[in-house]
């Protein structure tokens, strides 16, 4: 229960995110550091703060992927993300965050030198929306919004660090609907989480999610790091589903493709998908010149 202010006591409104951040950067007081036990994910509670304080906590994570779970959010968090590879230059990495479906109680900002850019507004439940930015654009600043009942609020999101030096990852982030170049295709064969030859059986468009689900019938699996493609009970053929953006306009069609891509936030996302005849041409040309980055094996 909140006590009424004493007579004559001036009650100030809560500070704005920018003032709160600038006060932290200028004074570096009242700020506690929270280190994740596994360096990948962090869970914390605003109940550890005194209700009248606007504490700002520093969270340090050193993984390629993980999550933030902030129960009963009060005050603010500065989330410091870095790849586990110490020698990696930050300019080669992109950060992507995906808020949990029921995330609430805080705004998520991109902060650089005291300037804030709103990424996710409290109450915005756009399904499956992913926000990406480079380290050079700033870091994550998460500020709790004023709540009458914080006991029902949990702010959370998943994060991933994507190496922009990898052609297939760069293609997915910068231009996911553009056909891959020969160089991108040949490198994707070596670096993708899955590489399969197959046909498109069906495409399901999810308007709300802004995604298309590609139902693939597989003729051959060259690589899959997780069990995306499995034998179908009714036919015995291997089947699996790959997601891509709805705006790419994928449609069912005849012919074999080489599907390649990566796992992102637990889903198989399409990277490159050349027709098999086009891939065989570019693969042979590179092999004849000794320029193949890796071998895919006999067809």
Automatic annotation (TrEMBL):
Gene3D superfamilies: 2.40.50.120. GO terms for cellular component: extracellular space. One of its GO terms (biological process) is response to cold. GO terms for molecular function: hormone activity. Keywords: Disulfide bond, Hormone, Secreted, Signal. It comes from the Eukaryota. Its main location: secreted. The keyword Transit peptide does not apply. Residues 1-33 form the signal peptide. It is found in: Secreted. InterPro entries: Meteorin-like, TIMP-like_OB-fold. Belongs to the meteorin family. PANTHER family: METEORIN-LIKE PROTEIN (PTHR28593). This is Meteorin-like protein.
């Amino acid at each position: 229960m909140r006590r009424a202010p004493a007579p004559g006591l001036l009650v100030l409104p809560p500070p704005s995110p920018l003032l709160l951040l600038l006060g932290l950067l200028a004074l570096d007081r009242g700020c506690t550091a929270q280190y994740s036990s596994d360096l990948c994910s962090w869970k914390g509670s605003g109940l550890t703060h005194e209700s009248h304080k606007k504490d700002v906590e520093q969270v340090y994570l050193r993984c390629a992927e993980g999550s933030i779970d902030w129960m009963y959010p009060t005050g603010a968090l500065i989330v410091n993300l870095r790849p586990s590879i110490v020698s990696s230059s930050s300019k080669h990495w992109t950060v992507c965050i995906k808020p949990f479906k029921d995330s609430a109680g805080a705004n998520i900002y991109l902060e650089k030198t005291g300037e804030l850019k709103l990424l996710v507004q409290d109450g915005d439940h756009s399904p499956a929306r992913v926000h990406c930015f480079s380290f050079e654009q700033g870091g994550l600043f998460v500020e709790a919004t004023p709540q009458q009942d914080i006991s029902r609020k949990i702010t959370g999101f998943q994060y991933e660090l994507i190496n922009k030096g990898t052609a297939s990852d760069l293609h997915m982030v910068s231009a996911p609907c553009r056909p891959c170049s020969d160089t991108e295709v040949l490198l994707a064969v070596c670096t993708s989480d899955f590489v399969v030859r197959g046909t498109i059986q069906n495409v399901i468009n999810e308007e709300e999610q802004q995604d298309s689900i590609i139902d693939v019938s597989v003729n051959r699996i060259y690589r899959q790091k997780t069990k995306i493609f499995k034998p179908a009970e009714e036919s015995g053929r291997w089947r699996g589903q790959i997601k891509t953006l709805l705006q790419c306009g994928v449609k069912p069609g005849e012919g074999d493709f080489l599907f390649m891509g990566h796992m992102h936030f637990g889903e198989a996302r399409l990277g490159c998908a050349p027709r098999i005849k086009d891939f065989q041409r570019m693969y042979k040309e590179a092999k004849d010149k000794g320029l193949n980055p890796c071998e895919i094996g006999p067809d």
